[in-house]
Amino acid sequence: MDQICRDSPMRRFLRRRSARGGLTLLAAIATACLISLPWSLDRYDDSDLKVARRPPGPLGGFMGTDLLGRSLAMRVLLGGVVSLSVGAAAAAISVLIGVGWGLTAGWCGGRIDRVMMRVVDVLYGLPYILLVILLKVALDDVMIRRLGWSVAGANLIILIVALSSVSWLTMARVIRGQVLSLRSRPFIDAARVMGLPGWRIAWSHLLPNLVGPIVVYGTLTAPQAILQESFLSFLGIGIERPTPSWGNLAADGVSAVNNVESFWWLLLFPCGVLTTTLLSLHFIGEGLRAAWDPSAHESPSRQA
């Protein structure tokens, strides 16, 4: 037991086989997508009707071709860059907003805390799809027509902003609860007695004690954002074609599977890569939660 207590959170994380497996799978998928970016960005929309609808094999390539003769492998790899970028950016922004909001509300307390948390409650009650549609309608004209952005770039930024605008709410509640618990600790009272200003106490004493929840919930926010992006792209209000994402590739695959002629590979590979990525992030998040949660520590021989 003493040895477990002396272990660092990273060692406890790496001791779990499921966490190591998830980290390995995610690193492999992200590396493949990034290394292939120069080729996938150049060839993702190259169509050749002579090789259209080819299944995986010598003629169709590793993942086959789609209905327009485009390489599915190139589109899946570029779609991975898009989906992972959306997930990482949305998670990073939601962490910044959620930590700042929750820290301010918990530290200030009183009327400021009540007003700020009522705002969180109101946003919780709004469906995120409605927020995405409203932001898309409001920002499309500004970014594309007035600022001269490309359609693909504007859609990507709008989607990241929309997902970030609702992903920080849970983080804010968690951080506020942690701050309310920490502000009554003796080391905070000692810092106040020493005459330290409030911003320095929050920066130097509260934030270091919030690293665990921030890391854990930030990791859990990334798969949520990726899944939401895929769902929105599946509905046609996310990343617009011909720019690929795992969501709109899955939507194309669903429409290509029918009783007359089934192009199964168009659904299998995008959904397979998306599912593998989400499971990997889930295992990583669970491993981080267990590593930072003292009540979840187990004997090394019993850990999964």
User: CATH topology, anyone?
Assistant: MetI-like fold
The geometry reads as elongated
Query: What count of structural domains?
Result: 1
Number of helices: 13
Give the terminus-to-terminus CA distance. 18 Å
How many E strands? 0
Query: Which structural category do the helix and sheet elements fall into?
Result: mainly alpha
Classified in CATH, the superfamily is MetI-like
CATH class: Mainly Alpha
Helix content: over 70%
Major sheet: none
- Secondary-structure element series: HHHHHHHHHHHHH
Low-confidence stretches: 1-5, 295-304
Keyphrases for this structure?
0% strand, MetI-like fold, 304 residues
Describe this structure in words.
- This protein has 13 helices and no strands.
- The two termini are 18 Å apart.
- The protein is elongated, with a radius of gyration of 23 Å.
- The chain has helices spanning 2-6, 9-15, 17-35, 37-43, 72-108, 110-124, 128-146, 151-182, 186-193, 198-206, 211-235, 246-256, 265-292.
- With 304 residues, it is an all-alpha fold.
- The longest helix is centred in the N-terminal third of the chain and has 37 residues, at 72-108.
- The chain has a single domain, classed as MetI-like fold (Orthogonal Bundle), CATH 1.10.3720.
